[in-house]
Amino acid sequence: ARAYEGAEPEPSGTSFRRWARELCALAGDREAELPLWQAMVAEGDTPLGVRPLDPAVDTASTVRHLSLSLPAEVTAPLLTEVGAAFRAGVNDVLLTGFAQAVADWRGDGSSGVLVDLEGHGREDVVAGVDTSRTVGWFTSMFPVRLDAGGSGDPGRALKAVKEQLRALPDNGIGYGLLRYVNPDTSGVLAQLPSPQIGFNYLGRFDAAGGSGAEAAGWSLCSDADLGDGRDPKGRVAHALEVNAVTLDERDGPRLVADWSWPAGLFSDEEVRALAEAWFAALRTLVDHVAGSVGVGGLTPSDLRPLVSVAQEQIDGLEEEYGGLADVLPLSPLQQGLFFHAVYDEQAEDVYTVQLALDIEGVVDREALRTAAQTLLSRHSGLRAAFRHEGLDTPVQVIPQNVELPWHERDLTALPEAERAAAADRLTAEDRTARFDLTAPPLMRFTLLTTADDRHRLLLSHHHLLLDGWSMPVFLGELFTLYGNRGDGTVLPKVTPYRDYLTWVAGQDREAALTAWRQVLDGLDEPTLLAAPDPSRPAVPVVRTRRELSEDRTAALARWARARGVTVNTV
User: Fold this and answer.
1) Dihedral of CA 148/149/155/156: which sign?
2) CA 148 to CA 96: how far, in whole Å?
3) DSSP 60
4) What does the alpha-carbon distance between residue 279 and residue 277 come to, in Å, rounded to a whole number?
5) Which of 455, 486, 505 marks a domain boundary?
6) What is the H or E stretch that residue 247 is in?
7) Contact, 323 vs 294, CB < 8 A?
């Protein structure tokens, strides 16, 4: 006790009373979910045991238990590698194997399994609350019909179950509100059949004795009898229940599953057969990930709400591009650039941008090439391909890896008088070479050498990848990486481009249209710098440069500053 003398606990956050009050107010707003939950349980289930569950007979005193554990060499990759490959949570993985095992064990030819699933209940459904440190009964329970399919493909099964779970609004918390809190819907759901199976994954706990509770100065006695919290005469909610937990022990994590059931419904051998079938299905998932290259991949929920594509479309993109890091929409300006780029694919693409850097001195070619490859690895947008065939809207497809387009031309064998002309010719050819927008990356690097200490680095890319603001960032990182031989740890963490596109998607489009209509009201026609001529082909940009003197530039800045405006406004 003295170790904790004077210690102040962290604030508990939102009170349980406020949370309960907020949920009561929220229950009336969830009625749109009623058809979902009705459809989830309407079909019911054929009895799993020798008879239906009888609350009068099947009391807690009749419940039997079976506990099995999965060894560490299976549990460790199950909780890490499998989920990572499919961007899935632990529940997604465990319930995939569970749905497969129950369907096979039941043996009636159906693949759908109805389960009561427990959730932590502390869902982000009320603004301005924090229940992470509030003590109380938050646990939610909701029915879910899982169908892993009968294809025999473990990866396809996991993707299917993952999507079925992701389709539940707010992790299923709405079911309890409609079933028990909303008076207009509670009676409707009460008349529908209840799942026969209950499933609860409790999470991961330390059991090694070197950290966690014991390190904090306390631990449970190894022989403590915690009980199961049940009245021996109380009713049993399910014909079969599974409570699973991961225990971190000295040799690694171990999945422990406790099965419970009324003795009159199943024999011990029947439940053991199902329990072992579940663990066998989980082993198959681990073997599937360990034994295949490029296994896993995206599912539609990974891309929503920014992009809406079907699993078949994702599978097609993955077959073409390999592993995908993301699929994103186009920003508003990218949509315009993309339209112009594909409008006439035979003409010169005026949105091919080239930067030519003349370098004096010795160049470490390998360090420069490694720096460029690291840039592609750091910035996912540089690896984008742009697609619209077979899709509702154009998207940018981001492969996990792309091959760096790196070329070197040594011109030193030419007579010295011809080298500059050859370098200019190659520069011009590189400038006009079109990019295939579907073949990433839309960027290439070419190093021309005209002498031992004279080089020209050509950085060409499609304007779809980079805007003007990005170029100084791009070049600054390239030079930093070159100086550090491609070591990206010297650079700050990259903010994902997805974050910006998410912000764009969250803007009020109608409000923006209204604002611009007001701004442009009364404008009858655009300001034309040249007469429109549809027959005139697109031509490369020609730049004209004018410079103010340093004195006039400084005077301009002072004039703008004195009036509280930017030089850009002036």
Assistant:
1) negative
2) 6
3) G
4) 5
5) 505
6) strand 240-249
7) yes
270 and 157, same structural domain? yes
The torsion region of residue 563 among left (phi > 0), alpha (psi -120 to 50) and beta comes to alpha
Quote the pLDDT of residue 555. Answer: 97
Q: Which residues contact 283 (CB under 8 A, 6 or more apart)?
A: 74
Asked if residue 434 and residue 311 are part of one domain, the reply reads: yes
> Is the CB of residue 180 less than 8 Å from the CB of residue 174?
no
Residues 6+ away with beta carbon under 8 Å from 555: none
* Mean pLDDT, rounded, for 208-233: 54
- Asked whether residue 291 falls in the same domain as residue 313, the answer is no
Q: Which two structure tokens, joined as six digits, stand for 500?
A: 């910006």
Residues 247 and 157 in one domain: yes
CA 257 to chain CA centroid, nearest Å: 29
Q: Output DSSP code: residue 538.
A: P
15 within some domain: no
Q: How far apart are CA 163 and CA 146, in angstroms?
A: 10
Q: What pLDDT score does 460 carry?
A: 97
Q: Which of 296, 312, 340 is the last residue of a domain?
A: 296
Assess whether 194 and 49 both reside in one domain. yes
Task: Tell me: pLDDT of 55 over 60.
Answer: yes
Say what the pLDDT of residue 216 is: 47
Q: Is residue 526 part of a domain?
A: no
- Cβ–Cβ contacts within 10 Å for residue 429, how many? 11
Q: How far is CA 398 from the centre of its chain?
A: 13
Given CA atoms 563, 566, 569, 570 in this order, what sign does their dihedral have? positive
Q: Same structural domain for residues 278 and 383?
A: no
Q: Which residue(s) pair with 385 in the sheet?
A: 397
Let me know: does 315 contact 337? Beta carbons within 8 Å.
no
Q: What is the CATH number of the domain that holds 110?
A: 3.30.559.30
Residue 512 located in a structural domain: no
| Predicted local distance difference test score (pLDDT) of residue 537 | 78
**Domain limits at 429?**
302-505
Give the span between the Cα atoms of 143 and 160, in whole angstroms. 17
- Cα 336 from chain centre: 27
Confirm whether 22 is domain-assigned. no
Q: Cβ–Cβ contacts within 10 Å for residue 175, how many?
A: 28
| CA distance linking residue 481 with residue 273, whole number of Å | 57
| Total domains, the chain | 2
Q: Give percent of the chain above pLDDT 90.
A: 76
